[in-house]
């Protein structure tokens, strides 16, 4: 092919001439193919390929910020910015002057670390620059990195995505890492850390292995049963293993969404008749005047939501309109929103006025029944205890702990009396709802997992219904595929975007 035939390749190539580089259009390089890939550019020391960089510490002014790179150009970038000819010893922090290689301008003096792959977070060559966290330092270093060829800013979650692709972590561990970054309470941190360390991934992997083994036995039976080398007994052993697995998965699915609640927060709703002090209670718990309080019944209309950390558990607490047959159309809308919130509540704080609370159990039961949806956990708060007169009221043990009453406490939002016992009851309820993140087998934390587990269970049920051994084996394969999609061991490209989208840039 002549020179003219190479029109598709009319890019600019680089020729190495005695240590120097001359840019020439490919068409003039005497062939129609681009030159062989560079291993490292003589001028800027950067190796070609996709190398990403980002600030990995938080954003905003800070003492020290960490800029991270990953990809084949990391080593060259480190050499360029530090103006050295030799990389620092792997995984050891080294103090270096950091310059913009294009202008030779001094940007900062900081600690640099070199992580040659595969012993790095992503498995690729990585570098870290620990610099002063001022915005001008950061933008200077980022600009210098961006000018190096082969380097580009990272997408959100791209470092973790690369780690996943290099087999450094499975998807459940990546999700654990994401949750750890977002964890706001101690219990959330404990659960996320456990997942990141791979406990949940190992559980799902073990189940996958059980299915692989069952499949191997079935296939052996199909292939060799005629030779009488494989006994019928094999099939009943497989049945037994599948049944045990089914039970284990069912128990895992029936954990009352504990892991999910802990991950995304327990939705607790304050409900009750008008003017009993619901908004006062919300304000007291979040320690700021988030909701309007007034002596006028029907003050609250919109749902007012605050996030709380109660005993290490995350709570999304909502204050709602007082429930009554309202005539005002705006209040009616408020009441309807309150009822809607109640339908989706994980926990209800039912507030009644201690001075007017029915003492007849049937009447009290009916009052609670009109507030709390059946089978939703509830705490009964008898507010305005300060108005109970001389003896100030007290509850016997039976009434405090129920049943038939829900756990109950006397409270005064005015004086703060009873706050401790309310927080104690709340802590107990949350512990029951979320479980202890450190105890027992790891909990289900994501609806993505439960969808796949339900799919796996459905396949196992079909397995049992099959008369034909070949068809039964197919169901086991399907069940295993569902488990594989949770950990990412089976074609999971479509879910990767969803998972990594929630990461921040630099992670
Ligand atoms: N004495 C006394 N008054 C209280 C207490 N808690 C609230 N109040 C008063 O009761 C009135 C109503 O309080 P809110 O918090 O607005 O009651 P609410 O249930 O949110 O009322 P709506 O939103 O209208 O349904 C206000 O005047 C509060 O100051 C309490 O513990 N003791
Ligand atoms: K009110
Ligand atoms: Mg209110």
TrEMBL record:
Keywords: GTP-binding, Hydrolase, Mitochondrion, Nucleotide-binding, Transit peptide, tRNA processing. Residues 265-431 form the TrmE-type G domain. PROSITE patterns: G_TRME (PS51709). It catalyses: GTP + H2O = GDP + phosphate + H(+). Signal peptide: none annotated. GO terms for cellular component: mitochondrion; transferase complex. The keyword Transit peptide applies. Pfam families: MMR_HSR1, MnmE_helical, TrmE_N. One of its GO terms (molecular function) is GTPase activity. GO terms for biological process: mitochondrial tRNA wobble uridine modification; tRNA methylation. It comes from the Eukaryota. It is found in: Mitochondrion. Its cofactor is K(+). Its main location: mitochondrion. Belongs to the TRAFAC class TrmE-Era-EngA-EngB-Septin-like GTPase superfamily. TrmE GTPase family. GTPase component of the GTPBP3-MTO1 complex that catalyzes the 5-taurinomethyluridine (taum(5)U) modification at the 34th wobble position (U34) of mitochondrial tRNAs (mt-tRNAs), which plays a role in mt-tRNA decoding and mitochondrial translation. Taum(5)U formation on mammalian mt-tRNA requires the presence of both GTPBP3-mediated GTPase activity and MTO1 catalytic activity. This is 5-taurinomethyluridine-[tRNA] synthase subunit GTPB3, mitochondrial. It comes from Coturnix japonica.
């Amino acid at each position: 092919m002549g020179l003219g035939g190479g029109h598709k390749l009319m890019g600019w190539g680089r020729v190495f001439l005695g240590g120097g580089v001359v840019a020439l259009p490919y068409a003039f390089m005497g062939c129609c193919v681009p030159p062989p890939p560079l291993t490292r550019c003589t001028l800027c020391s950067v190796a070609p390929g996709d190398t990403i960089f980002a600030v990995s510490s938080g954003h905003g002014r800070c003492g020290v910020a960490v800029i991270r790179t990953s990809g084949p150009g990391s080593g060259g970038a480190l050499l360029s910015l530090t103006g050295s000819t030799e990389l620092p010893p792997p995984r050891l922090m080294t103090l270096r002057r950091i310059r913009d290689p294009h202008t030779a301008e001094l940007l900062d003096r900081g600690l640099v670390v070199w992580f040659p792959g595969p012993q790095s977070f992503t498995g690729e060559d990585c570098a870290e620059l620990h610099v002063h966290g001022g915005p001008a330092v950061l933008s200077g270093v980022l600009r210098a990195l961006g000018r190096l060829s082969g380097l580009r800013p990272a997408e959100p979650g791209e470092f973790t995505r690369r780690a996943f692709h290099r087999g450094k972590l499975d998807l459940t561990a990546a999700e654990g890492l994401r949750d750890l970054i977002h964890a706001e309470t101690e219990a959330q941190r404990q659960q996320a850390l456990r997942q990141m360390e791979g406990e949940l991934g190992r559980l799902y992997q073990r189940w996958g292995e059980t299915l692989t083994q069952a499949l191997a036995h079935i296939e052996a039976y199909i292939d060799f049963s005629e030779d009488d080398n494989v006994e019928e007994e094999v099939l009943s052993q497989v049945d037994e293993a599948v049944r045990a697995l089914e039970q284990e998965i069912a128990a895992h699915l029936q954990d009352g969404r504990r892991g999910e609640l802990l991950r995304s927060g327990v939705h607790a709703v304050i409900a009750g008749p008008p003017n009993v002090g619901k908004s006062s209670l919300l304000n007291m718990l979040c320690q700021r005047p988030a909701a309007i309080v007034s002596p006028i019944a029907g003050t609250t209309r919109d749902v007012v939501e605050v996030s709380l950390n109660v005993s290490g558990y995350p709570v999304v607490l909502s204050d709602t309109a007082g429930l009554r047959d309202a005539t005002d159309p705006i209040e009616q809308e408020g009441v309807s929103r309150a009822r809607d919130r109640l339908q989706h509540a994980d926990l209800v704080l039912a507030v009644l006025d201690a001075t007017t609370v029915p003492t007849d159990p049937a009447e009290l039961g009916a009052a609670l029944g009109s507030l709390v949806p059946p089978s939703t956990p509830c705490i009964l708060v008898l507010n305005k205890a300060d108005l109970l007169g001389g003896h100030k009221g007290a509850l016997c043990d039976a009434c405090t702990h129920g049943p038939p009453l829900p756990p109950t406490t006397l409270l005064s939002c005015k004086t703060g009396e009873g706050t401790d016992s309310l927080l104690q009851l709340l802590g107990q309820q949350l512990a029951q709802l979320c479980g202890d993140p450190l105890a027992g087998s790891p909990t289900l934390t994501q609806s993505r997992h439960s969808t796949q587990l339900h799919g796996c269970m459905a396949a196992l049920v079909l397995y049992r219904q099959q008369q034909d051994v070949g068809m039964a084996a197919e169901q086991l394969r399907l069940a295993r595929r569902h488990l594989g999609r949770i950990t990412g061991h089976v074609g999971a490209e479509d879910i990767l975007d969803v998972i990594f989208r929630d990461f921040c840039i630099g992670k």
